[in-house]
Amino acid sequence: MSLPKQVTKVHATGNDFVVYLDRSGKFEPTPDEIRFLCDRHFGIGGDGLIRLTRPDFVSDLSDDQLADMLAGGAKWFMDYRNADGSLAEMCGNGTRAITLFAQRMGVADETEPFRLGTRAGVKILTPRGNMKPYGADVFQVQMGAWTIGEADAYEVTIPGTAGSARGTFVDMGNPHVVAVIEDAFSTLPVVEDLDLVTKPVVSPVIESDQNVEFARIDDIDERAGLGEATMRVNERGCGETLSCGTGLCATGIVLRSKTGIDHWDITVRGGTLRVDVTDNDVRLTGSASIVADITLL
Fold first, then answer.
1. What does UniProt list as catalytic (predicted)?
2. Which residues contact 184 (CB under 8 A, 6 or more apart)?
3. Is residue 91 annotated as part of the catalytic site, yes or no?
4. Which of 63, 105, 176, 203 is the most exposed place for a label (fewest CB within 10 A)?
5. Global pTM exceeds 0.90
């Protein structure tokens, strides 16, 4: 087995992960091992697996990516894999989960920003402590640059569910299509009634598989410049999850494009998070929690 004996279960607003520290680079997981550990019946259970290691020990990184890690000051790398064993460029909730774990393991400072390497570049995480209404062990993640496609350019359907919605493509280092439903373009059920166990279909087809978010605007306070929304998500590689960090950011970006509001409190099944959008950056604020240490047999 190419896994250490000790792993840890961590979640960030219900997006849960099996994580471990690999100081030596000896414990790169295989797809079969990832699928086993993330299985909720025969393994530990998780939306993904995260190996915290040095950038030099990540076999799929190019020389240019390694140079970016060095230039960005990232001594540690979030080697994130989806529950099906596939590689993932980025996971916003995963950055908070692995940073809390890194603090516990003594490789991240509990009060200073932490520079974390990912396949989508270096992310900076700032500890915020306890912060209402977002919870305990809150981090703000500087998620970096984003791009958005043509508004409502995609038709989004759910097999077995009547109706459709229009979606907008957002690149957060990984691909998203965000559908704002319960508006004039949508004939799908309300957000709470959607069947997201079934994988949504996006048309026209995007080259790479994508995450799909369904969002509803709940309230806008124009004087405060703050909006409130509800979101659910089907993540590629693991199905519906209680939260998706890059999906929350993509949703905030699309809501901004439709309303002009830069700041959003977005509620997912795992809790409420803050998304702050500018032209050049998006920041995600939310909590993380360590659940258990586990010894593998």
1. 91 (proton donor), 91, 244 (proton acceptor)
2. none
3. yes
4. 63
5. yes
